[in-house]
Amino acid sequence: MDALKQLQYLQTLGIPVWVPGDFSPDFFGQRHVVSEAATIADIQTAQADDKPLSVQLSDDTRTLDWDALKARVQGCTDCGLHRGRTQTVFGVGSQNAQVMVIGEAPGADEDAQGEPFVGRAGKLLNEMLRAIGFQREEVYIANIVKCQPPGNRNPQHDEALHCSAYLQRQIELVDPNVIFAVGKVAAQNLLRLDIPIGKMRGNRYSYAPLDIPVIVTYHPAYLLRSPREKRKSWEDLKRLKSLAG
Ligand code: URA
Description:
By secondary structure, this protein is of the alpha/beta class. The chain has a single domain, classed as Uracil-DNA glycosylase-like domain (Uracil-DNA Glycosylase, subunit E). The chain has helices at about 5-15, 65-75, 110-115, 120-130, 155-175, 185-190, 195-200, 220-225, 230-245; strands at about 45, 90-95, 100-105, 140-145, 180, 205, 210-215. Strands 1-6-7-5-3-4-2 form a seven-stranded mixed sheet, sandwiched between helices. A hairpin with a 4-residue loop joins strand 6 and strand 7 (about 210-215). Helix 1 (about 5-15) packs antiparallel against helix 4 (about 120-130). The chain is globular and about 50 Å long. The chain binds uracil.
């Protein structure tokens, strides 16, 4: 990406960037900013605990192709969330993506449009991705659950569990180099860890069923409420970029 453009994206994100006295676009070039080697703690693999990781990928979920999986999700009534949905929100983006972004659940905008991250938080997510050189269309975006929870509450454990087989199959089909877990709900459900997000950030985890690296970051909706934390999210984005391949 053009260095100047990257600077503009960072500024849009509200991330202060130190500009040397005589600004040279090279300073913001890939070598210096985007690909900067991240200092990442040792990979931590989610430990098995007493909660099942996913509903047994019983029947044939594991063999479904994209169309069949989408159709299965569209007809799903396995948990109570289906009662409140306008439509399911399956996922969007490149089926060969290097990066898979996983959020929490559809909100009202997503429920209306049938696509994840299309509201204000989605716009910020797009800017975050662009800051490290990815267009929205180049990544794959999905959520922990495919139906909007009532009143925008967090998905409950059993709801996430029912949807986890679908998500696991989506991850299998995309086979990304790295997963970007945005927000506490995504990170905790993917990794089965009950750790506050502030403590998860900065570590590199692995999505155990498929052994794919996971970078945890704050949810863009949280960043909209707490813009001071954007600086930390920039650190996470650099880690993501370094693993994207
Ligand atoms: N927040 C999420 O976590 N996912 C969406 O799709 C929209 C908002």
